């Protein structure tokens, strides 16, 4: 069994996993996600996970029985059963791959599978090449998407994965798909537990056919903290920090802020790669602004599913309508001749200058419908109805491409594109996190408001049972 083979590798590399670490290392999912506390041993677990999978290629060998303790037989076993592969260590920047890279170099030297000339001293980029078959382990930086656009690796270690953005995560999935490869992600939660990473931790906690998340708390590293949760060093941290900080940074538990308007929005359910399809008309939904954000959400409606396709968002600050129009006219989808548009009612009003709707009509020849949303909660309820998964089709009626960083930040699945902070659309709360009032805080919802106008225009409000939908053709 694979456990026997792994035990041999652990002995040869002088590694004795804790119970928590072994549970993670035995994971047999395509996608494994680890939410780790500080100093919990995330990097060494990631490197050992990679080592086991790299030395167990191809898949036929992954399940083989290996009981020998003889190094020569192990070496012969690897030579017979494995062909050269490609593996990536990916992080937000090259420096964050250093720990996993160094651990792998150390272990491969112990196993006599590389020598001093088979690996680089730098990680920007770095490479390890196994002598037996040319298997390569390469470092990649998400700062340069071009490095993630070539070749299809057999497996990927995402180092400090909580620092990666959602677009990078989807790009990694695309890269391993051709070889049915695996992805192992580990990271420490940031205060606030917002973004795609904490949401996947929760969604994968009980496992799916392909994915599982694990928690690796600091307290599980009994080599550093022999007393576990009652270790004096842990107790001092707990006493001197907030409950949310302790749960996130030490215990690896997501603690999302209270008051998110759309907690049901899920990266695994509502976010998918959606290419622009020139065969369908484009609907342009607009919430004009300046200091906050000017949001243009171009969508396509296919079988009553709203598809927010790749490259269809303009989400800018400090630009006037004419400048926004120029950005839109440079987009691929602008050539689509069948366009309709909806804008906030305020976009039809004059503020000592031409109304935005008039500028769109004059400069872009796009007529924009508008009507006053009767109240903010009714608009949010219409969005909420589109987030529900259809029991017939197994998909929601609203799906978002991961490139839409503006509206994804408002849903809490990406950082704000302007300052990289958490700027989620949420209810008003007091300092204890208790929701105050009956209406959400009407900020950080520019893309969401644009979608609200579009959904109400095309599908009406959510009404009583006998009026589930009102179709609106004009205003």
What would your notes on this structure say?
This protein is α/β, with parallel strands linked by helices and 475 residues long. It folds into two domains: 2-250, Rossmann fold, CATH 3.40.50.300; 269-467, 2-Layer Sandwich (Nucleotidyltransferase, domain 5). The protein contains 16 helices and 16 strands. The strands form three sheets. A seven-stranded mixed β-sheet has the order 3-4-2-5-6-1-7, with helices on both faces. Strands 8, 9, 10, 11, 12, 13 and 14 form a seven-stranded mixed β-sheet that branches. A hairpin with a 6-residue loop joins β8 and β9. α14 crosses α16. The radius of gyration is 26 Å and the shape is globular. The chain starts with a helix and ends in a 16-residue tail after the last helix.
In short:
The protein is of the alpha/beta class. The protein is built from 16 helices and 16 strands.
List the keywords.
disordered C terminus, 7-stranded mixed beta sheet, globular, 2 domains, 475 residues, 16 helices, Nucleotidyltransferase, domain 5, Rossmann fold, single chain, 17% strand, alpha/beta
Ordered list of secondary-structure elements with their pairings:
Blueprint: H1 2-12, H2 19-25, E1 31-36, H3 42-54, H4 59-62, H5 71-81, E2 86-91, H6 98-110, E3 127-129, E4 136-141, E5 155-158, H7 166-177, E6 182-187, H8 196-203, E7 211-216, H9 232-240, H10 243-250, H11 267-270, E8 282-287, E9 294-302, E10 305-308, E11 313-316, H12 321-329, E12 339-343, H13 356-364, E13 368-369, H14 376-387, E14 398-400, H15 405-410, E15 427-429, E16 435-440, H16 446-459
Parallel strand pairs: 1-6, 1-7, 2-4, 2-5, 5-6, 8-12, 10-14, 12-13
Antiparallel strand pairs: 3-4, 8-9, 9-10, 9-11, 15-16
Helix pairs in contact: 3-6, 12-13, 14-16
């Amino acid at each position: 069994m694979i456990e026997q083979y792994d035990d041999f590798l652990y002995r040869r590399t002088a590694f004795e996993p804790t119970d928590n670490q072994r549970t993670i290392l035995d994971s047999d999912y395509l996608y494994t996600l680890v939410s780790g506390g500080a100093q919990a041993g995330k990097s060494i677990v990631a490197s050992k996970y990679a080592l086991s999978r790299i030395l167990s290629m191809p898949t036929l060998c992954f399940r083989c029985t290996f009981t020998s303790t003889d190094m020569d037989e192990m070496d012969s076993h690897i030579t017979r059963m494995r062909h050269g592969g490609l593996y990536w260590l990916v992080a937000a920047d090259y420096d964050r791959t250093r720990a996993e890279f160094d651990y792998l170099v150390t272990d491969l030297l112990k196993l006599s599978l590389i020598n001093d000339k088979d690996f680089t001293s730098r990680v920007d980029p770095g490479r390890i090449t196994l002598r037996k078959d040319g298997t390569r382990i390469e470092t990649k930086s998400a700062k340069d998407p071009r490095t993630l656009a070539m070749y299809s690796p057999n497996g990927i270690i995402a180092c400090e994965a909580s620092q990666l953005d959602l677009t990078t995560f989807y790009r990694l999935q695309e890269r391993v798909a051709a070889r049915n490869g695996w992805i192992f992600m580990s990271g420490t939660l940031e205060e606030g537990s917002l973004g795609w990473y904490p949401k996947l931790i929760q969604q994968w906690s009980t496992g799916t056919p392909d994915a599982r998340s694990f928690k690796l708390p600091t307290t599980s590293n009994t080599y550093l903290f022999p007393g576990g949760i009652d270790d004096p060093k842990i107790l001092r941290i707990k006493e001197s920090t907030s409950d949310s900080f302790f749960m996130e940074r030490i215990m690896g538990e997501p603690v999302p802020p209270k008051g998110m308007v759309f907690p049901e929005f899920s990266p695994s359910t509502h976010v998918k790669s959606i290419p622009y399809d020139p065969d369908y008309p484009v609907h342009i939904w607009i919430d004009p602004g300046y200091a906050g954000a000017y949001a243009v959400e171009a969508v396509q409606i296919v079988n009553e599913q709203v598809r927010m396709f790749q490259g269809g968002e303009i989400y800018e600050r400090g630009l006037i309508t004419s400048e926004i129009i120029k950005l839109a006219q440079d987009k691929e989808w602008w050539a689509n001749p069948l366009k309709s548009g909806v804008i906030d009612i305020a976009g039809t009003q004059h503020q000592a200058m031409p109304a935005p709707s008039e500028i769109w009509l004059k400069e872009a020849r796009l007529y924009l419908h508008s009507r006053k949303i009767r109240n903010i909660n009714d608009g949010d309820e219409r969005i909420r109805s589109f987030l529900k998964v259809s029991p017939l089709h197994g998909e929601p009626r609203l799906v978002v491409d991961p490139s839409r960083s503006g509206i994804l930040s408002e849903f809490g699945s990406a950082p704000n594109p302007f300052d990289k902070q958490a700027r989620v659309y949420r209810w008003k709360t007091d300092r204890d996190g208790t929701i105050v009032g009956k209406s959400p805080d009407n900020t950080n919802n520019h893309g969401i408001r644009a979608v609200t106008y579009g959904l109400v225009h095309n599908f009406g409000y959510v009404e009583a049972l006998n009026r589930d939908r009102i179709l609106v053709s004009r205003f």
